Amino acid sequence: MARRQDHTPVQLQQLTMDTVLALLQQQPASSLSLRQIAREVGYSPGTLINQFGSYGLLLLAANARTLDQIYRELCAAIEQADSPQQALEACAMSYLNFASQHPHQWRLLFEHQLPEQENLPDWQQQRIDNVFTLLQQQLAILKPGTTAADCAQTARTIWASVHGICVLALDDKLFTPGNISGNSMILSLLHHYLPGWINAKEDRHA
Which CATH superfamily is domain 70-199 in? Predict the structure, then answer.
């Protein structure tokens, strides 16, 4: 068992996150335990609790790493796109690809819950906001003159729709013929939804 002074707090947190994400490549979060993670890291469970505050916050820190990964991949997708429409399509595809390649890590984002009395930390909320800001910026370019509130709602509408397709695709519950995939459904969604949104007048009573 490694001694506590073998790593600085920052190094230990990094090592723990690397270990958790590696484990999530092999098994769902529901089968993880603090004891298993501590054994893999080489420190006691108590040491990890001292570093993160609780097992729940440890998993939340892993979710922060996941959001950082998704954010970087969305940024890369946007940089390679030639238009806002293509950027949004690329972001949706990137999201589906991430979910397909890292299903347990991706699911933990939505399965993990803090106790009711605990609010989401600012550092995590900021990461969520950053991801949606990327989408909202493309929507604002796509529809000049629209309000920030309209872009915010539209970004979340698109995400919720794409997310639903991702969930069903990962669970193999799309029940579609062989020539219809999650990718083609996402493209169909955006090709039909975005033109309608661009041409529609904003509903200020929504």
Answer: Tetracycline Repressor, domain 2 (1.10.357.10)
